[in-house]
Amino acid sequence: MLMRTDPFRELDRLAQQLTGPGTWSRPSAMPMDAYREGDEYVVAFDLPGVTAEAIDIDVERNMLKVKAERRPAARADDVQMELSERPLGVFSRQIVLADTLDTERIRADYDAGVLTLRIPIAERAKPRKISVVAGAGVGRKEISG
Question: What does residue 36 show for φ and ψ, rounded to 5 degrees?
Answer without folding.
Answer: -100, 135
